[in-house]
Amino acid sequence: MAHEHKLEIFRGLLKFKSNTQKIWGVLIFLTVVTAVEVVLGIIKPEILLKSSFLGMKLLNWIFIILTLVKAYYIAWDFMHLRDEKSALRRAIVWTPIFLVAYLVFILLFEADYVYNVYKDGFVTWNF
């Protein structure tokens, strides 16, 4: 028995008539998100470079969040997670999100430590 996939994205806000139209819709969404990342990477607005949140520039946070959005949506649509049971979806989606949050915490904590070591002069800047 064949399983019919849902032909909608954004929790039913956009509905399509065929799988081909849906694939194009998802491709356009992912292209827009990637274009925003590229434009922000090229322009690098001063306000996003000067302001920081949890020890990291706001522009870097935007890049991390947009990358997670793309990864989530690729898994959601192209790996057909939307058609699975909610426990499996949560196990697959939330595990990498918590892992990325943990890795960002390690990155910030260790970078702050290294910065303070060099700032206090225990080790001189050698590069």
Please tell me the total number of domains. Answer: 1
What's the count of strands? 4
Biggest sheet character: 2 strands, antiparallel
**Uncertain spans:** none
Strand numbers in spatial order across the main sheet: 1-2
Compute the separation of the termini in Å.
Answer: 64 Å
Alpha-beta classification: mainly alpha
Our estimate of the beta-strand percent is: 5-15%
> What is the percent of helical residues?
55-70%
How many whole angstroms does the radius of gyration measure? 20 Å
Average residue pLDDT:
81
Shape: elongated
Q: Name the helix and strand elements from N-terminus to C-terminus, one letter apiece.
A: EEHHEEHH
Tally of alpha and pi helices: 4
Question: How would you explain this protein's 3D organization?
Answer:
67% of the residues lie in helices and 6% in strands. The strands form two sheets. The protein has a two-stranded antiparallel ribbon. The chain contains four helices and four strands; from the N terminus they run ββααββαα. The protein is mostly helical and 127 residues long. Strand 1 (8-9) and strand 2 (14-15) form a beta hairpin. It is elongated and about 65 Å long. It has helices spanning 19-43, 46-50, 58-78, 86-119, and strands at 8-9, 14-15, 52-53, 56-57. It has one domain (11-119). The model has no long low-confidence stretch (mean pLDDT 81).
